From TrEMBL:
The name this protein goes by in its record: Peptidase family protein
One example GO MF annotation: metal ion binding
Keywords associated with the record: Hydrolase, Metal-binding, Protease
Leader sequence segment: none
GO biological process annotation, one example: proteolysis
A Pfam family annotated for this UniProt entry: Peptidase_M20
Length: 525
């Protein structure tokens, strides 16, 4: 009997293994290049603008109040709360600074904001801004999210705690503070400036191309695009990235219908699951066809379009990971995780973050999810799904492959709705704008690791692809909690901290304007 039992168990195990989907192992990302990019190869910026710095020092309280004024104005794009007021606030601030040509730009959604400052300069910088913020969480905030409160945080110092403090109202208004100091002391900045802001970045920037299209001819004459951003970690070390992943964000819905069954008009009693099909189970089963049991993408051809990392990207990658494997444990701890996906080591995990695509379930909703018991059979189930795209993937291509996978597996009735999407974007480390920013980091004692792109997404493509302009993000300053309770930006760091104060953040932006101007004046090699 024991032998028969063991034989039966072996046969059953083999049958179960055969029934499971095969592991969808991702391809190994090859890094053949051995050289590494080192920001120390860029000479520190030598400019010194004592009069401008002195003005910033005298305006310390006023400049902090400007940040508080911005974060006190709600501008939640998902709820259309305060959007019109924030757009007008930004436009009025640009006009007060001397942007004589300003406008609220109508779109099919929330308005854009345009401003042009003619300094009579040979070169022009476009400044990308977003004036919208994420919704507020119902619990978890230490202070009113729109009060613009100053909070003493242990180990950090005095922080501005508010929605938008670091993402992105704080650094953006700090940039305008720096610009104001330049104008008040020297009459005009060293470059012409175009501010082009949107109010839908947190929605996936669906209508920002309309804003860009309106001013495309003017924008094409510019030399580059800059996005002010806090880039220092809690330890004070800054980092820099040259691009972003693209994204396609979609909604999948299964509902009762004649082909798959299930209730079609409304939820019914849970006991009826004995004789009616469940749209909830149908959606779960459909989603399960998109990945293997290990979470790796199982959509045929999904990675076929991906371009392998080029030489520059490999050198940037080597510069990021070299000597930093020891930081892996700290990174995992900060994320509240115990290991990298499927046991990857730090190097492979970092390569995947930079050079591989994703397929992620953001949320699942069906039926009753409240407290207590309510036994129902829902008539519909919805999932929010996003995929981060790398060169040369496109949103429509990715969407078509997912649609084909569902159809091939018999889920033709599961609907897919594209909510937003745009391609990846990237700028070279050799671009004058990049080199100018790196030289300023070096002036402030920073030698930042430079990533070819980050894992997140932003609509950089409208500049890099549509207009053919280089675009980077940068700046000193530390903040955290974007999209979460207790979002903050440090304004007065604790004693001994390497994190920049608000005044130092502003100085960085002053120097960047002059460093960029100098870099653009040099003859091209």
């Amino acid at each position: 009997m024991l032998c028969r039992s063991l034989l039966y168990t072996s046969v059953l195990s083999a049958a179960l293994l055969c029934a499971l989907p095969a592991r969808a192992v991702p391809p190994k990302i090859a890094i053949a290049e051995t050289a590494a990019f080192d920001a120390a190869s860029v000479a520190p910026f030598a400019g010194d603008y004592a009069d401008v710095y002195a003005y910033l020092g005298k305006q310390r309280e006023h400049n902090l109040a400007q940040l508080q004024r911005w974060v006190r104005q709600p501008s939640i794009s998902a709820q259309n709360k305060g959007i019109a007021q924030m757009a007008e606030l930004l436009r009025a601030d640009l006009q007060q600074l001397g942007f004589r040509d300003t406008a609220l730009v109508p779109t099919s959604g929330h308005p854009g904001v345009y401003g042009y400052l003619d300094a009579g300069a040979e070169h022009t910088l476009v400044v990308y801004m977003m004036y919208d913020v994420q919704p507020i969480e119902p619990t978890g905030w230490k202070v009113d999210a729109f009060a613009g409160s100053l909070v003493d945080e242990p180990g950090l110092g005095k922080v501005l705690m508010a929605r938008g403090a670091t993402n992105q109202k704080g650094p953006q208004r700090a940039f305008l503070n720096a610009l104001e100091a330049v104008i008040k002391t020297r009459g005009k900045p060293p470059v012409n400036l175009i501010v082009l802001a949107e109010g839908e970045e947190e929605l996936g920037s669906p209508h920002y191309p309309e804003v860009v299209a309106k001013y495309a001819d003017t924008l094409r004459k510019a030399d580059g695009v800059f996005f002010p951003m806090n880039t220092q970690g809690r330890d004070g070390d800054a980092s820099m990235f040259l691009g972003v992943k693209g994204i396609v964000y979609m909604e999948l819905e299964a509902k009762g219908n004649a082909a798959s069954g299930g209730p079609q008009r409304a939820e019914v009693h849970g006991s009826l699951a004995a004789k009616l099909d469940s749209p909830s189970w149908r959606l779960v089963q459909a989603l399960a066809t998109l990945t293997g049991p290990d979470g790796e993408i199982a959509v045929p051809g999904y990675r076929d379009a991906i371009r392998a990392p080029n030489r520059e990207e490999q050198q940037l990658f080597n510069g990021i990971v070299r000597g930093r494997e020891a930081d892996a444990a700290k990174q995992l701890e900060s994320l509240g995780a115990a290991r990298w996906k499927n046991g990857r080591d730090y190097r492979d995990a970092t390569a995947a973050e930079l050079f591989d695509t994703t397929l992620n379930i953001d949320g699942l909703v069906a039926g009753y999810t409240g407290e207590g018991v309510k036994t129902i059979l829902p008539h519909r189930a919805v999932a929010k799904v996003d995929s981060r795209l790398v060169p040369d993937q496109t949103p429509d291509q990715a969407l078509a492959l997912i649609r084909k996978r569902l159809d091939d597996k018999g889920f033709q009735d599961v609907e897919i709705r594209k909510l937003s999407g745009y391609p990846p974007a990237q700028t070279s480390v050799t671009a004058p704008l990049t080199q100018a920013a790196l030289s300023v980091y070096r002036k402030y004692g920073q030698t930042p690791p430079v990533a070819p792109r980050i894992g997140g997404s932003a609509p950089y493509y409208v500049f890099t692809q549509t207009l053919g302009l280089p675009m980077i993000s940068g700046g000193l300053g530390h903040g955290s909690g974007a999209h979460a309770p207790n979002e903050y930006m440090v304004v007065e760091p604790a004693a001994g901290s390497k994190v920049a104060s608000l005044e130092q953040v502003e100085r960085f932006y002053v120097d960047l304007l002059y460093s960029l101007s100098d870099a653009l004046k040099r003859p091209k090699p």
